[in-house]
């Protein structure tokens, strides 16, 4: 009986051990396989992350090299204007303007992989280049003195469709004064309480400068290359499609409307901007700004969009980067979207 019990006991232990051992080995093998698979997946994630970083670094390096090289070439073009014949200066300035516009487009197309710091540096370099371009044009092609021509009060009003009126020939009625478009520098300066108009023929893809204007209504009908606004107070400024950038500095209590590739705004307050922008608007040291989609219209607007090269269907009017507000996930207190009920719908009054 003891032997039988022993056999039975041994058989029972053997059987039980066999079952337990087999189950444990299976579980161990499963754990090893899971761990091995996790190692493979982790290695794959690290490899993909490394490749992604490598691609991003290569893109940034390519952008940096290409941007710097093109900027240097444009600066060399501008430097060659010093002391050159007028025809060569004109040719170089046209080429520099076109290449600066293309450089702006290159920056806009690279936004997805640039950091905020890299973007800010590139935009500052572009703004400096635009300033050099304007200064070189003013120095190498001296502008003619501003001359004034009178418009009758009836002619000075913009029609409901936004078409500029013809100039009146009679000097007896001072009416609304406008700067003659024959000057090399296209724009208006040091004017108060006037209606100021530029036509497409006067603008002709030039850089337009508006400075020291107070309580003026400005209509720029055409497609400027760039638009510079500085020291603007209580004005309404409407502009056709700007092929590259709009730069605003020290503007207050005004209403602005324009399409552009890039908007850079400094030191501006209590201003409404009706905007069509194909990149992202940037503000710095600003407060009390409100944005709405561009809504001004005039008969040749579509033609001017074609001249400017802007994408009519791409409008990032509410995508605003505030360089003074870096709190992620919290809206900047310095700008808002203008409520629809408060948006201007009629521009001819």
UniProtKB/TrEMBL annotation:
GO terms for cellular component: cytosol. GO terms for molecular function: tubulin binding. Residues 171-325 form the C-CAP/cofactor C-like domain. Keywords: Acetylation, Chaperone, Cytoplasm, Phosphoprotein. Pfam families: TBCC (PF07986), TBCC_N (PF16752). The keyword NADP does not apply. Its main location: cytoplasm. It is found in: Cytoplasm. Residues 28-55 have a biased composition (Basic and acidic residues). Residues 1-17 have a biased composition (Low complexity). Residues 1-55 are annotated as: Disordered. It comes from the Eukaryota. GO terms for biological process: post-chaperonin tubulin folding pathway; tubulin complex assembly. Supercomplex made of cofactors A to E. Cofactors A and D function by capturing and stabilizing tubulin in a quasi-native conformation. Cofactor E binds to the cofactor D-tubulin complex; interaction with cofactor C then causes the release of tubulin polypeptides that are committed to the native state. Tubulin-folding protein; involved in the final step of the tubulin folding pathway. Belongs to the TBCC family. This is Tubulin-specific chaperone C. It comes from Amphiprion ocellaris.
């Amino acid at each position: 009986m003891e032997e039988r019990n022993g056999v039975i006991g041994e058989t029972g232990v053997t059987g039980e051990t066999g079952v337990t051992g087999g189950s444990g080995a299976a579980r161990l093998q499963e754990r090893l396989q899971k761990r091995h698979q996790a190692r493979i997946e982790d290695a794959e994630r690290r490899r993909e992350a490394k490749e992604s970083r490598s691609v991003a670094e290569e893109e940034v390096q390519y952008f940096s090299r290409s941007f710097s090289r093109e900027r240097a070439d444009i600066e060399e073009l501008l430097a060659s204007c010093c002391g050159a014949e007028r025809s060569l200066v004109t040719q170089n300035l046209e080429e520099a303007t076109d290449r600066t516009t293309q450089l702006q487009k290159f920056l806009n197309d690279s936004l997805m992989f640039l950091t905020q710091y890299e973007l800010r540096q590139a935009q500052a370099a572009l703004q400096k280049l635009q300033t050099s371009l304007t200064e070189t044009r003013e120095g190498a092609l001296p502008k003619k003195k501003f001359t004034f021509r009178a418009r009758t009060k009836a002619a000075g009003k913009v029609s409901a469709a936004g078409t500029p009126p013809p100039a009146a020939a009679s000097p007896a009625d001072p009416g609304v004064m406008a700067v003659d478009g024959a000057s090399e520098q296209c724009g208006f300066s040091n004017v108060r309480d006037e209606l100021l108009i530029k036509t497409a023929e006067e603008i002709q893809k030039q850089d337009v400068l508006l400075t020291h204007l107070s309580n003026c209504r400005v209509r720029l009908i055409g497609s400027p290359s760039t638009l510079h606004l500085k020291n603007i107070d209580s004005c309404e400024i409407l502009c056709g499609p700007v092929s590259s950038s709009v730069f605003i500095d020290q503007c207050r209590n005004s209403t602005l409307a324009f399409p552009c590739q890039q908007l850079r705004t400094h030191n501006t307050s209590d201003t409404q901007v009706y905007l069509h922008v194909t990149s992202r608007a940037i503000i710095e040291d600003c407060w009390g700004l409100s944005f709405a989609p561009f809504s001004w219209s005039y008969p040749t607007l579509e033609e001017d969009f074609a001249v400017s090269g802007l994408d009519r269907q791409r409008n990032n009017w509410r995508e605003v980067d505030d360089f003074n507000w870096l709190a992620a996930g919290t809206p900047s207190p310095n700008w808002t979207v203008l409520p629809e009920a408060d948006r201007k719908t009629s521009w001819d009054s």
